[in-house]
Specification:
Blueprint lengths: L3 H21 L14 E4 L7 E4 L2 E5 H6 L4 E5 L4 E5 L4 E5 L4 E4 L2 E4 L5 E3 L2 E5 H12 L11 E6 L9 E2 L4 E2 H17 L4 E4 L9 H10 L4 E8 L10 E6 L26 H19 L3 E7 L2 H5 L4 E8 L3 H7 L2 H22 L7
Parallel strand pairs: 11-14, 11-15, 15-18, 16-17
Antiparallel strand pairs: 1-4, 2-3, 3-10, 4-5, 5-6, 6-7, 7-8, 9-10, 12-13, 16-18
Amino acid sequence: MPTLGFFTRALRATFVVLFFLALASGPFAGNLFAAGAGSVRQSVTRSPATIKLGGVSYTDARAQFFQLGYKASYNAAGGVLTLRSGASEVVFTVGSREAKLNGLRLFLGESVEVYKGAPVVPSIDLERLILPILRPSRTDRKPIRTIVIDAGHGGNDSGTRNLPRKWNEKTFTLDVAKRLQALLADGSWKVRMTRTDDRFVELSDRAEFANNAKADLFISIHFNAVAAGSDVRGTETYVLTPQFQRSTSSAKSGPEDKVAYPGNRHDARSAVLGYHMHRQLLAKLKSEDRGYKRARFAVLRLVDCPGVLVEAGYLSNDGEAARIANADYRGDIAEALFAAVQAYDASVGVPTKAP
């Protein structure tokens, strides 16, 4: 007959088993068996948990990407989480807003953090930026019928300048816009321009023009400059900042982050559009990657369709400005934008039916 001591030992054993089962089923249970400071691969089978840190929603990145078929490698010492599938790679760094998606620099709304040993990523970045890019098939397909091209600046607004060479942004944006118009006109799309000559157009009027045209895509073309430091060069691509996030250039959150704009209705598609724009520009121009970023520029806020604003180069950099002043190079910019529209259409557009 079992003794009292037997029942006591059995009870203790049962408690230990139940304790570890409880740990293993918690929201960040996969970290219970993670190695220390080294780089480890981990099989995660749980659903992604969402937690709040400093008022920001975060998601367990490894669990989220496990559901998509990605393998995770986390270097706890360096704080680097690498997620790979057969076709894509995403790299997050703890404490940083900068990530890498298929080799492209991409800026998050908030920095990646660690919670109970697990790297966590801002939930809005996953939902409104990264996942739409990686899984565009989950976005409802819509036909692209009308594309509006916006040549930045114009008239009394010269935009950025290269003063020694007397080059103005407004001249080059219009030239690229016309080249892109010619390329797009050979397709099945209706193409409209916010300006076709050297005239000033208010920012709100540009958005209103696109909305009245019932635009399905809005592409705003610009060239950058800095006040000092002519070594700065490269390509930047912007889409509208999602509601409840701060823009890339914002050091802290502000009241404007809480506002939903017309453009925010199209965050997922804008994310896909911006990705293809940035990727095609870098591939074609071989320019420095200044990053895929978010901002609340007026034209992006007010257009009621997927929108993107590209800064194709720096006129303040004499070497890059000389390239921009070359007609063939501006043709390359237009060709990159055209290829991006094609890639976007293939991702989330509706295939054109044969007559």
